């Protein structure tokens, strides 16, 4: 990014790992790469779902998409395998200090997490309260319980502190969610 | 599709299910939908991996991708969960009557299948010899063995008949690969 008068904004010199200008998505991507490189688990982010309308072929070997639209995702963003188990989750950032708005998750994503659990997979959310620098694991079962038992349109942070598990910020892996999976499932 | 003089080309009246103008990808997509609708398993095709270079916002609610490129896939196309197990595979069509060219699979896709198996997942290929109307399941272990034991650049069809499992064409589910998984793994 270019700033006026040659000023470069520095993002990465902060001491706190959580506050170093990395998004949750970036943190999870480097975490997944760490898991893969160290033969711990195979978990990938799915590509963004799009519908392609127009493709140009400027040369025989090159194809350039000239028009496409974003689709509403029908599943979650991340999945893979860990210790033989199917792992499936979504990662969400949230600015509020008090609650996580449920309109961050589509209805069919919730249905997807339910199906995953019914078929013996492990489904969950990773939610980062960015203002508080707190990242929580919320098991799919706890998410479903909350939705079934409440009419609220957001999950209060209390529910995360009581029913979720805090994922402490580390150097690497940055967001060690498989350690939580170990505690909960193995 | 509109044809001149109101003539409509019929695709779906053939008796053979394999020869009805459906691609293997289409067959697998409807098979996965059948599995999902009938609560058998949750398996999805991943979106096409792309890099987005330019996005326009013609209105506040609309985003249109104006330039993007296709990426080389680093994983396989399909994954999900069945009876608690992680399922991961790629589906390939092949015109040859005698062999399946290995350049249909990228090296990192082979590495991906190896990793999947090492972590307790089930990895495999579905290969359709389109000219012969034959669709085979080839287990990831058999694929890896072949590559380790041979210098050949293609897998002869004999290897599929001996080491693979023929997936018979059905009305629905069209390509019942989970039945094969049942035989091999459960």
Protein architecture, described:
The structure is a homodimer of 186-residue chains. Chain A is α+β, with helices and mostly antiparallel strands and 186 residues long. The first copy, chain A, has a single domain, classed as Trna Endonuclease, Chain: A, domain 1. Chain A has five helices and ten strands; from the N terminus they run αββββββαββαβαβα. Chain A has helices at residues 24-37, 107-118, 140-149, 157-163, 177-185; strands at 42-45, 50-59, 62-70, 78-82, 85-94, 99-101, 122-129, 134-139, 154-156, 165-166. In chain A, the strands form three sheets. A six-stranded mixed sheet of chain A has the order 1-4-5-7-8-10, with helices on both faces. The longest helix of chain A is centred in the N-terminal third of the chain and has 14 residues, at 24-37. Chain A starts with 23 loop residues before the first helix and ends with a helix. Residues 1-15 of chain A have low confidence and may be disordered. The interface between A and B is large, with 39 and 39 residues. Strand 3 (62-70) of chain A pairs antiparallel with strand 3 of chain B.
